Input
Amino acid sequence: MNYKRFIVYQGTVGMAASMIFPFYILLIKNVGTSYSQFGWAYGIFSLTAALSYPLIGKFADRAGDNIFLLVYSWGMALVLLAFPLAYEIWHVYLLQIVMGILGAVQKNSEKTVLARFVNKATAGKEIGNYHVWTSIGAAAAVIATGYLVDFLTIGSIFYLASLIFAWSGFIIMKMEKTAPLSNAE
Output
């Protein structure tokens, strides 16, 4: 996989994540009884991610970036299928724990791939350009999802995002067949 393909992959997962994260509060409000439960849900997500980083980092170099990106894509695709089925707040908390681990996998993998690709002398410029393209996709997804929520149920957004995460998994699988992540392409 080359750097441009990685940006396409990251743009895809960024779009899928941006479709759901701003709209969590609507789903959790339908499941829970207060906004404080949203705070707990997001806090559990962040805490789980923080505690997962050391273990993920330990295995990242041995397992390879592609496998970690694939685990993230397919893991998120599956987890998002369960979100609309959650009807108790503890279901949401459990899903947040899984998503915290997956979020740590993604963030760690994103950073390691970037570290392997960018030239140290121009790292700031290259990473800045990377963020431009991935952020444009995320912004478009949030705006479009706002309109979709007006016409669809909140649960359907999670299903749609699940499909996009699954598609990103296919992107990684296709890249895996051609070559592992490297700066050689």
User: Anything to note?
Assistant: The helical segments are 3-20, 24-31, 35-63, 65-82, 89-117, 123-151, 154-178. The CA atoms of residues 118 and 126 lie 6 Å apart. The two ends are 7 Å apart (CA to CA).
